[in-house]
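Record type: monomer structure entry
Structure origin: computed from sequence
Chain ID: A
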Amino acid sequence: MNLEDMILISVDDHVVEPPDVFEGRLSKAFQDDAPKLVTKPDGSDQWVFEGVDIPNVGLNAVSGRPPEEYGVEPTSFAEIREGAYDVDRRIDDMNANGVLASMNFPSFPQFCGQMFNNAQDKDLGLAVLRAYNDWHLEGWAGAFPGRFLPLGLVPYFDPEAMAAEVRRLAAAGCFAVTWSENPEKLGHPSFHNRHWDPFWAACEETGTVVCLHIGSSSQVVITSMEASINTMLTLQPINLVHAAADLLWSPVLDRFPKVRFALSEGGIGWIPYFLERADYVYRNHRVWTGSDFGDQLPSDRFRERFLTCFIEDAHGLANREQIGVSTMCWEADYPHSDSTWPRSPESVWAGLTAAGVPADEIDAITHSNAMRAFSFDPFVHRSRERCTVGALRAEARHVDTSPVPRFRRHEAPSEPLTLLSLLERASHPLLDAQKGQG
């Protein structure tokens, strides 16, 4: 196998929602109160819902821009690459990057639909959430069958409504939902509470994977408001260790033995020690803690029930046997600041070859694990020969991937950027939530 022969499916990318998301998808009773895109005096485009402004901050869509333009200030659609919000241009950018298929997490609703779930009017919130899912399935993923792994939001303010939406989505061919890495931080019961049993039961019944994206607890990882922003950026993916441990030791895995979780944008290099430690704890403490995994170790159960996701992770690939090759999926994170677009094939190939990964395992990591886990078969729509990196890039010779200045340039800070100075420069519900932690 060589680089051009790979087939790449990314299980973590993002969509910047276009202005017409809700057009024709809500009843007359809710249309006037639906989220609306408005242009602010500073020129930025922001969604407004129930009086709350939700900007698209700069780091959400920096693919195709020079690094000196990265930042967190609100942006306009004119300042971001069209592939972030236009599905036709997204396909162009996927082809140019050699990516066959992509799972797209939301932007302005936040990673698990916090904006809709927190609506004061719950009937409105549910109607808007369902309309968003319809747009995602029909207007985005449905526009190019076989090119997107559908992903739905759930109304987590009501577990019965969650279960109903999971079943509705599955009937439409969507077998993944995005939820919170820690619902307790959203003001709801923890994973350990039977409150969520209707949701788990629906996921088990339909084979729906629960995707837990970093930041889906509406909090980012901070050590101090005065710490360098690099501290947060370094710790953020590793923070999914909390969700992994919480669920691994929770009763959910016993009561619902078929539910699977994806640690979206969580990286994999930390997992070997995490599993070693979990097994050590089980062997040394299970008698007095009451843990019982039967004939399994915690590491065995993890490999059965979790999907692991990485962008570029040489250490994880070198230790893939300890993680479990069958758990591993690749991601491009387009158009976020961590994305490897438009050189994703070169990035992942370098890690795979450095780790000596054989061809069958490359296939598993780059696409077949994702196909199996998410009940997704792109080859129904496109022959395998047309799905490779080389074939897709051949279709995208017209796509310009060179960096294009689009944004107001920043002067280099006189001292390292801190979380405190970051919050002074921008406002967003996710960032604003941190102010109370300082």
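Annotation 1: The chain has a mean pLDDT of 91.
Annotation 2: The chain has one domain: 3-437.
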